[in-house]
Amino acid sequence: MVIFYITGVLILVAIYIFIDHCRMKKISHERGEPNICEYARSFDFRNVDTKIIREVWNEIQLSLGNYNGRPFPVKADDTFDSIYKMDPDDLDDIYWSVADRLGIDTENPEGNPYFNQIRSVRDLVMFLNHQPRIKKNNKVL
Fold first, then answer.
1. Which of 10, 34, 135, 139 could lock 73 by a disulfide, CB 3.0 to 4.6 Å apart?
2. What's the predicted TM-score (pTM) here?
3. Quick one: which of 73, 76, 78, 80 has its CA closest to 42?
């Protein structure tokens, strides 16, 4: 009897994953080719570190995978919850990866004006942009 319940749950999970994959594939198809220029232009590059813009783009694409044979076309206003259906742990992985790669200090995030307000790709970029940089030998990395 338990085997039937487990099998049923596994089938439902597989159906959910398949439906979500089809949903993401449809969004990818509607958006067309990934365009980092369009994405980057949606930020004020005079006030936002372009390295952060680029690294967040790269990490999200790695996290989402490929649809229609190409990386997912990330938009700045995409929400992690409703568009990507991303688990908060996956969002943490993106944050830590970008912060480590660019030398962004991850201490005391509570002082950041975007703390606990990250809903979209833009919010993540702005949060990272407002974090201090790590200093090594009195030089900012």
1. 34
2. 0.84
3. 76
| CA atoms of 57 and 141, how far apart (whole Å) | 20
**From the CB of residue 35, how many other CB atoms can be counted at a distance below 10 Å?**
13
Average pLDDT over residues 79-85: 93
Task: Give the three-class secondary structure for 73.
Answer: coil
- Cα–Cα distance, 15 to 137 (Å, whole number): 53
User: Residue 96 — very low, low, confident or very high, per pLDDT cuts 50/70/90?
Assistant: very high
| DSSP state, residue 132 | P
First to last CA, the chain: 59
- The β-bridge relationship of strands 66-67 and 70-71 is antiparallel
Residue 118, classified by CB atoms within 10 Å of its CB into exposed (0-12), middle (13-18) or buried (19+), is: buried
Rounded CA separation 121/57 (Å): 8
- Phi then psi for residue 71, to 5 deg, are -60, 155
